[in-house]
Amino acid sequence: MKNLSRRKIIKSASAAVLAGGTAGSAAALSKLSGGLSSIGKTPHTKFAVNVEMWWTDLEFTDRIRQTAALGFPAVEMWDYAGKDLDAIRNTCDELGTVMTQFTAWGFNPGMNDPANHNDFEKKIRESCGIAKKLNCTLATVVGGDDQPGMTGEEMHKNMITALKRVAPIVEDNGLTLILEPMNIRVDHKGHSLYGSGPATMICREVDSPNVKINWDLYHMHITEGDLCGHMREGFDQIGYLQLADHPGRNEPGTGEIHYPRVLKEAYDLGYRGYVGLECRPLGDHIEAARRVAMADQW
């Protein structure tokens, strides 16, 4: 074992994960590489690996197995269309892994256009059933790209109208919609909702315990900075946190954001929900997981 390179150890451990069941996979990782199965068992923050961005060369359920083998308690995903939801649920149940959230409504067609509100309601009703199938309580919704001829204020009012319309539906079904503001400087030019201010205003106007913000710290950092200050101001509307470092949208520790300070602030404010790792590992996934764990050390 001493003669094996670290890369070979990791490769062997990964192969063991995919070859065996949960207990065997975790044991293989622990034995082969000095406790890899405990990396994701962080003391303060419960991380949810975004399995759309991690281990993308593997089958979808195998990504969930990799997540569990590293000790992370949860996963998140994007659109549910075309996915084997039964297999995903069964894998999560087998591993004791939580599916924290999925995307119920994306960029287009825009929720910010009243012409789409009937379809929006239908999609949210459908998503309530999807959430129950996945044993999931959160679903992301996106405001939409800019609508020709509409001001930002008009589009935001249209989002409020749409969310008020479906609020009783999600309340009755135990699902919380989390509205995600983006950034327009790097990733989503031409989008109609960015920054904590407008998102907080919209959710406060909707005034539902089941309509909150998907507070993506990566987007917030690029848009407005002062991550801790803005979290304090809008904490009552935070339904979920996501992260990535900047520049690069990779894991914590690869860019300019000091995530131990930011995550401590969230913890001190009382946040006990999951934090989605919507980031692309810069290189080796094991090292990326270790950097994530370091972000929880303070």
Protein described:
By secondary structure, the chain is of the alpha/beta class. The protein has a single domain (38-294), classed as Divalent-metal-dependent TIM barrel enzymes (TIM Barrel, Alpha-Beta Barrel). Helix content is 45%, strand content 14%. Helix 3 (60-69) runs parallel beside helix 4 (85-95), helix 6 packs across helix 7 and helix 9 runs parallel beside helix 10. Residues 1-14 and 16-34 have low confidence and may be disordered.
Radius of gyration: 19 Å
Biggest sheet layout: 9 strands, parallel
**Global mean pLDDT:** 91
Count of helices?
Answer: 11
CATH architecture: Alpha-Beta Barrel
CATH superfamily: Divalent-metal-dependent TIM barrel enzymes
* Global geometry: globular
Task: Report the structural category.
Answer: alpha/beta
Which strands sit side by side, in order, in the main sheet? 3-2-1-9-8-7-6-5-4
User: CA-to-CA gap between the ends?
Assistant: 33 Å
**Element string (H = helix, E = strand):** HHEHEHEEHEHEHEHHEHEH
SS strand fraction = 5-15%
Number of domains: 1
Low-confidence stretches: 1-14, 16-34
Task: Please write the CATH class name.
Answer: Alpha Beta
Helix content: 40-55%
Number of strands: 9
The CATH topology is TIM Barrel
